Amino acid sequence: MKKKIIVASVFTVALIGGIIGIKSVSGGHHTSGAETKIVQKTTIQETTTAVQHETKAPVETKKKVDLIFPEKYKNVSAIKIEKKKVKSEDDSDEMVEIYEKDDEKSKVVGIGVDGSYVKILKKGKKFYQIKSDKITGYVKKENVVTGKKAKEVLIEAKDVIVKVKAKKTELRSEDNKKSKVLSNLQEKAEYPITDISKDKKWIKVERTSTMSGWVKTKDVTVKIHKEYLYTPEEYDDMLEQEWAANAITYTLEETSLPKEGEAAEFLKYATQFLGNRYVWGGTSLTSGADCSGFTMSLFKKFGYSLSRTAAEQAYNGKAVKSNKLKPGDLVFYHTDRKNKNRISHVAIYIGDGKILHSANKTQGVIISRLGNPCAARRILSGKSVKKDNDKDKEKTAVVSTKKDIKRLNQETTTEEESSTVEIEKTTQVPNTTEVETTTKVEETESCIDEE
Questions:
Q1: pTM of the model
Q2: Residues catalogued as catalytic
Q3: How many CA atoms lie within 13 A of 237 on its CB side?
Q4: For the domain that residue 345 is a member of, what is the CATH number?
Q5: Does 37 have pLDDT greater than 70?
Q6: pLDDT at 419
Q7: Which of 100, 370, 395, 421 is most enclosed, with most CB atoms within 10 A?
Q8: pLDDT in tens, 46-68
Q9: Cβ of 70: how many Cβ atoms within 10 Å?
């Protein structure tokens, strides 16, 4: 019984002590429950305010403004022709094919050239779906560039134009105020851009084919000439139109070829392919080739390695004046009606004012008149050689570095001082000698864009 009384007493004391402890805790600050809530709320507000003061306000970043291109050209996209050292049979003459589906075996619905203006609709692993004017299709993703790269391609293609704002805008020789004034540009006149100064305060424009200079960026407005994709029919029609004026074709019997030497061997071999098919992107002498595929494959048989496209071949070999042509020389043409500065066709001069070339789909490989080439290059060395595919004996005519191209341009500038030349006619053309015709021809490098 005593044990029970002791246990009860201990329990009572503990209970009383707990109550007293609770009271002292709640009453020690002389604060009621409601007051406690207010204190807590105030503390939270003070803490939040302190955090806000400690947090740095976001720094306003200035919007990057393009001093050259208007805002509407911010996300511009364009076709870029990849210039590869090793070319496949699918590569073609300065153009890319636009397919109906994301498959190279599908129907070709369009043709793109350097600077063709496109809009990207969908990006895939290998193909981009694009739209350009009325053509929608698929192109290899490596042939599409955007943003800054696209603008560079458009400038190279001379599709970026300036429009003069001021009445008296000076064209200067250098990108500074102290340089020589070359001429005054007319208000509202338009010129293609060829370069932009590092500070973007000056723009270099091409006033004529023989005069370029710098204008102040603030004196002009910049716009992009939208060169859309071609349909296959439009692209082929450009070649048709070029040779419409040279519709007269010749048979082999009507042609005087050299009798001996390397050129004689070369042309004898080349003329056996007369009548063969013109095929976009083709390099086969028997199954079909485009113009540059035809020349590349012919010279390869004689141990010369040429670049794949007409524009690239215009930098191979050695520059030749138009009045100094010899059989076997390459001659180049503008056939692009939308861009007169783009080389888009190449042929082989065979003598007597005639050329051998893979002309177009309608005519195939033919002999026709020389016409008006804009450039000429000499590939053959003049020494008689046998056809040999041995790589060790291959004579390389390819110019693959910018340094080499610059050197060739300097050589050409030294050789050619005038823009046109009158060529006298001769009744007989000696074999392998320099040839003369009555055609007025622009000098050789006039159509080669600088790189």
A1: 0.51
A2: 291, 345, 357
A3: 8
A4: 3.90.1720.10
A5: no
A6: 31
A7: 370
A8: 545 554 545 555 555 555 556 79
A9: 11
